[in-house]
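Throughout our pipeline, every protein is held as a single compact record rather than as scattered files. The record that follows is passed on verbatim for readers who wish to inspect the format.
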Amino acid sequence: MSLPWNLLTRPAREPIRRWVLSAFPRGGGGHVDYDHPPGDPGLFGPDSATWRVHADFPAMLAGGLAALMLQTLHPLALAGVWDHSNFRDDLVGRLRRTTSFVSGTTYAPAEQAHALIERVKHIHAQVKGSAEDGRPYSADDPDLLTWVHVTEAYSFLQGYRRYSHIAMPAGAGDRYYDEVRRLAEALGARDVPASEAQVTAYFRRVRAQLCFSERSRAVLDVLYRVRLPVPVAGLSRDVFLQAGAALLPVWADTLLERTPLQRAQSRLAARALWSVAPVFRMALQDGIGSHACARVGVPADTLQRWR
């Protein structure tokens, strides 16, 4: 990074670092020790595509919001959120819990990562009910677990490609899907896509099960009004939300009935987030990924290079 850029961005870095760490605390508020035991590579390790993709905060936040938008389209997955989640009052809390799970299972030592998986499996076992059309649902349904996993993995990968400023080598997307598939399977998912071609085929197959309902609208309305714990909350929310929407596949953009104005806003927001993303990276040089790198004895900037 050039010296003039360093000087220009220095005043913004500490405020960005403060709000990221307060909004999304490491380990969900200190429950995960990313520093010990030394040498433990966790579930993926420093050579993985997963450590690199998940290290980029703007890409991950925008990707997480895109995944939430996609997930509103599956009636059974949406029913579980509708009946058992406090999304109406604490959507930020849900974002934090998802962030904590993803960061923990990515970077934590193996024993702690497995404990996080078991905790989520226990929660899923209690989430059951009936959708609006009377069909039963369960959060530990292998097919629903696959849906949630694929929407998240797809969105995180697209966010990385769009906002990280780091070119991915050929085949890296396939590596990423093949790695994170193991996490989904540990949660109970089945027939999990393990490559970009398989993800494309999966979306093609599942599309007939999707719809944009009144419940979808209601959840998205809460999402569009959420007050993210960030500076200039309204503007920041709109930038991240619209930058997230820019990651949606074309078929989902259509199904969500997004207007030409919304699509234009997403393109502008995507450019804005791309422009400021390097400042986030400079502000978060001591992030969770850096702690994991120190634990296994590799430089933190390893995560900004592909092998």
